[in-house]
């Protein structure tokens, strides 16, 4: 059987192909037939370029239905899709294009000048443009192509997508995901989140990241469900479409912003079936406030570019705030320390094995080997613990672990403590170089509007609750935490900003 992911999606399209697949904010409707025919045209265009079968198609374009169609066309034609964040500038694009050596680059018309220069210098022979409003050379060229295309024969182990990790430390690595990885994960999630007839997905996430592309869109495509496409997250627009939607997926920041609008509540959510959160930790405050305001319990799940989704709170069972839930069916997740599995409640490294786990890092065989255990588990780099009911909590990234005076300090524990203080909106705890302790614990704290807090009071509060070595040595008040587009706190930027804090002590 052909394992091409497009063939799987096409087999699940609704019988009535004149039904709406994508509705846009500017009032356009794309039927399932439109999606099938438009992706066939682009697949024919790509196939006509006579590229080697493992060719990468690198894409840096604004979100649009055509961007999703280009993704579908790429996998349908058997090539490897490589989405790139629209925020990347020259040096980043030089790195990704140089590393991935794509056969084709597709960029926004406005960026053609500089992107094509980088691409041609790296040996890419074909550069097309695709704008937000169906403009650019890609669609112009594809318009002359046939609108039927048989999905290229693929094995489950063949590459479908390369996702470059966000690389908040070190070089960004290309995670190679196969047709089999993506198909298995999409099927598991369809079942686990109880996708059903009549579902409508409100799609506000970007398409260059796993969350919007491989979780949200895949869910709707596999279920033959309509999507309402918003160009980006905008609380007002989301509230406008929620009454006509049943599923919404977002990063925690989206939920915080929705709650900040006094008009957001039960009424706008009356038609909704499911809210999903992921990509970064959802604060317990947000989780609870959402229940209070809407009556809905956000379902938090955990995943990463290398493994797609691996753990999720249940649809039917209890959704526990502050946890990411239970391992998905068929996925094996364990928490280990020094090579041994931890007892329930103990903190350790999260490792995963299953059909969802990627093939390896692009052109980094040694790095890939390092990240797998001898018995085939992938080391996620996240640190966490299982509770007695089998729910996983994430404590942080292992690289964010602070070792102060020889003691391990898990930032999440201190962040939770600070976040509980009245007047604290949120916090981020980092380790900074310290002449005595090796690393010293430091917190960056965002204060709620109108609240007055002092460094001394917060330190005193921490001292009363936790061991001294965990108490922040300094607390810096900041107006907001630096976050990337997926809402992840960029602790590397905080470490850089405050790196000299204890430098003076070294000179004494
Ligand atoms: P990415 O590959 O960009 O999706 O980033 C994956 C990383 O995001 C994971 O390794 C986690 O560190 C983090 N992450 C994803 N979902 C969650 C979640 N629900 N809670 C906490 N961290 C998360």
Protein architecture, described:
With 508 residues, this protein is α/β, with parallel strands linked by helices. Among the domains are: 1-18 and 32-154, Rossmann fold, CATH 3.40.50.980; 402-506, ANL, C-terminal domain (GMP Synthetase, Chain A, domain 3), CATH 3.30.300. It is built from 16 helices and 26 strands. The strands form 6 sheets. A 9-stranded mixed sheet has the order 2-1-10-9-11-12-13-14-15. Strands 17-16-18-20-21 form a 5-stranded antiparallel sheet. The longest helix is centred in the first third of the chain and has 16 residues, at 32-47. The protein is globular, with a radius of gyration of 23 Å. The termini are far apart. The mean pLDDT is 95. Bound molecules: adenosine monophosphate.
Structural descriptors:
508 residues; alpha/beta; binds adenosine monophosphate; Rossmann fold; GMP Synthetase, Chain A, domain 3
Question: In terms of topology, how is this protein built?
Answer:
Elements: H1 5-12, E1 20-24, E2 29-31, H2 32-47, E3 56-60, H3 65-76, E4 80-83, H4 90-100, E5 104-107, H5 112-121, E6 126-129, H6 137-142, E7 159-164, E8 174-178, H7 179-192, E9 200-203, H8 210-223, E10 226-229, H9 235-241, E11 247-250, H10 252-259, E12 274-277, H11 284-294, E13 299-304, E14 308-312, E15 326-327, E16 332-337, E17 340-341, E18 348-353, E19 360-361, H12 365-370, E20 378-386, E21 392-397, E22 402-404, E23 407-409, H13 411-419, E24 424-434, E25 438-447, H14 455-465, E26 474-477, H15 491-497, H16 503-507
Parallel strand pairs: 1-10, 3-4, 3-5, 5-6, 9-10, 9-11, 11-12, 12-13, 25-26
Antiparallel strand pairs: 1-2, 7-8, 8-19, 13-14, 14-15, 16-17, 16-18, 18-20, 20-21, 22-23, 24-25
Helix pairs in contact: 1-8, 2-3, 4-5, 7-8, 10-11
The structure holds adenosine monophosphate.
Adenosine monophosphate is lined by residues 165-166, 210, 278-281, 300, 302-305, 324, 380, 382, 394, 397, 486.
